[in-house]
Amino acid sequence: MRTVILCYHKVGPIAEDGRFLNVEPRHLAAQVRFFTRRGGPLASLQKFLGGKTTPAVLTFDDTYQSAATHVPEVLAPSRSAATFYVVTGKTTSDWDGERARPLATREQIVELARAGHEIGNHTHTHPHLNQTENFAEEICTADSHLRDWGLSPTTFCYPYGSLNPAVVGAVREMGYQGAVSLRKGKVTDEDDRWQLPRIVVGYSDGLAGLLYKLYIRPFLP
Ligand SMILES: [Zn+2]
After folding, report:
1. Contact 144, 136 (CB under 8 A)
2. CA of 138 to the centre of ligand 1 (A)
3. Domains observed in the chain
């Protein structure tokens, strides 16, 4: 079990989406080309956990409209798939205050799944699950909404990366096959499938910035 799971949020032109948690489509395209030229098409987390080899797994937290719009066209030429984590009870990322942006509509989410992308569970209202008494309800409510939309979520993403043993246990008990956190690192055989590490990609990361995070920084003293 070896790959790198990348964590993205918005994917839009800087004029529309700014720099906060945004990666421009052209930067994403360069990053995707780097991986696919060396390792073939990218698989979703669901497929990777099912045994498929992939040079990287791309995850898009919150499923912003900008990501739903731009990611499929970036991935289509290499026939790659990504994983989109959906917050079922929100229409904007209101937890970001003034920087809130629209989230994908139900129609857009269903269309992503039809195009071969994975739709995963990112809770109903995006709380810090380790500070929320009804954490299990947050996970279950989102799961049943996604199923009502005809989807079959099998992986989970902890909002803010916040978790504790009870939260991880609830995700496992739902029958999910894996979950992603915000612990930094590449995936190795030693990793717990329900607390997988990721590398966060930000605005300032062109291809060079991403390669630095993946291949140089881990070896610095
Ligand atoms: Zn999130």
Report:
1. no
2. 13
3. 5-219 (3.20.20.370)
